[in-house]
Specification:
This protein has 137 residues and is mainly beta. It has no helices and eight strands. A hairpin with a 2-residue loop joins strand 7 and strand 8.
């Protein structure tokens, strides 16, 4: 879907970066959490993607077929200006961010029992989300 996944652009570490491997994936939304979570002084929109295709991954795991919890920061100068509108389960999506394995992810209200791997920092300067033809970064 996107040529951004194949670009190699050095990314400076940002304040909330986990310095985790970069992953760019395409998949299908399997769950959308309706209420944002307030964390690190910003709202985060949460959803789960079942990964169908890996466009880029700096790690070693095979991510195809796995589910990953996605946290998109919004409402401040470090994340997106607003939530991504109209997210719905069953819809295709592309996302890039830092991949935090389930062993390193910490449980949250929306990501627990079991704790899924996390795609974090899905906004500038590290990542983006592409949904219904619109790119959010």
């Amino acid at each position: 879907m996107s040529n951004r996944a194949t670009q190699t652009v050095p990314q400076p570490p940002a304040a909330q970066s986990q310095s985790a491997p970069l992953a760019c994936v395409q998949g299908t939304i399997s769950k959308v959490f309706l209420n944002p979570e307030f964390h690190n002084n910003a709202n985060h929109q949460h959803f789960v993607i079942r990964i169908d295709k890996v466009l880029k991954f700096e790690g070693t795991q095979n991510l195809v077929g796995t589910e990953v919890f996605v946290a998109v920061r919004f409402g401040d100068s470090e994340g997106l200006a607003h939530e991504i509108p109209g997210l719905q389960a069953g819809q295709p999506i592309e996302a890039q961010g830092e991949y935090i394995s389930d062993a390193s992810a910490y449980p949250t209200q929306d990501n627990s029992n079991p704790v899924l791997p996390v795609l974090h920092f899905t906004h500038h300067p590290v990542g983006y989300v592409k949904y219904q033809g619109q790119t959010y970064s």
